[in-house]
Queue: 2 jobs
Job 1
Amino acid sequence: AQSVTQLDSQVPVFEEAPVELRCNYSSSVSVYLFWYVQYPNQGLQLLLKYLSGSTLVESINGFEAEFNKSQTSFHLRKPSVHISDTAEYFCAVSKTGSSYKLIFGSGTRLLVRP
Amino acid sequence: DTEVTQTPKHLVMGMTNKKSLKCEQHMGHRAMYWYKQKAKKPPELMFVYSYEKLSINESVPSRFSPECPNSSLLNLHLHALQPEDSALYLCASSQEGTGVNTEAFFGQGTRLTVV
């Protein structure tokens, strides 16, 4: 079985500061890894994903995440955050070849202050 | 079109009512999902349909009844709900199979309140 741990329930940060949202996973099989973002009263949007290949993946809005197999981590980073990045961020894992059972972490609320 | 459309956006229903949530996608995805999300919690999988057949039921109470009338539509029929069923209900879809492009696309959700 897979599990996901997001250690920080809330991360407050000032605008234009860097941020890291931590995600660790546990699995006995190969997995796909995802970061989803949820803005208030909205559904989930895929931010980025690791399926295979390069361990560093990037999104179009400046976020990046690095898959670290030895540390079983997939931390999300952004060098300079904006007020509009305030949202809930969910790390998720699924077995390779199947997105049937996305296992979500408990979520991290990123709160960007001016 | 990379959208999953859910209707209605908001729903208030009494405990004796019968209502349905609807979900539609036109991405050619053959796997569709219902998730339930309580406030400040991650989504929890309820049902999975694969090629219009129910493939996973995560021990959901029978007052929730899913239906997949065709490859583009997914319904969730609600009957005799309890106040604790109030939540955001999310629909998602993905490609079927073992290829790499199997990430799930989510709709905006239906905010359900049971009174």
Job 2
Amino acid sequence: DGGITQSPKYLFRKEGQNVTLSCEQNLNHDAMYWYRQDPGQGLRLIYYSQIVNDFQKGDIAEGYSVSREKKESFPLTVTSAQKNPTAFYLCASGRILTDTQYFGPGTRLTVL
Amino acid sequence: KQEVTQIPAALSVPEGENLVLNCSFTDSAIYNLQWFRQDPGKGLTSLLLIQSSQREQTSGRLNASLDKSSGRSTLYIAASQPGDSATYLCAVGPMNRDDKIIFGKGTRLHILP
């Protein structure tokens, strides 16, 4: 089945720790995205990538890092520099930036 | 800079009624507009995509319209059901292929049984 997956579904982190969220797609999409969603704030773009080995900062990239070593994978690392990391994180992919986006099921990160 | 607004933020409607959700955008130079549905704690599911050259798209009980000149889109839901309860988001795709899709904050819809 074609689709986009995220793991884990729930993630708990202690303050000061880095954590990495996984995002994988088998849709052969070039573009991939990471969003953060907080109650009442809508979706905010963290990072996006249009092609392998290339990515750009979104609107709230501080405290996050990404890599795009393979077309299928776009992992997001939430570093200790992110002051308020508790949120719902959504990964998406699309053929190109202006094309429809397909979303994964999300990862809920909680900092203890 | 493109801004996408969805009003109201929340809406409650009795089951069986027809309803309209609104989306407005500030820059009419768009490539497409898309409506998504999001259930609590889940990802977004694409409902309808309207290209800039189109006026509307239909899927089952859903009909989305686009008026670029006025910067507005509506999502019409016919004969609403409790299963339609969710948050509905619209997203605007820019003409510049290097720009990003801009999302509205969504309208949280509750269908009353």
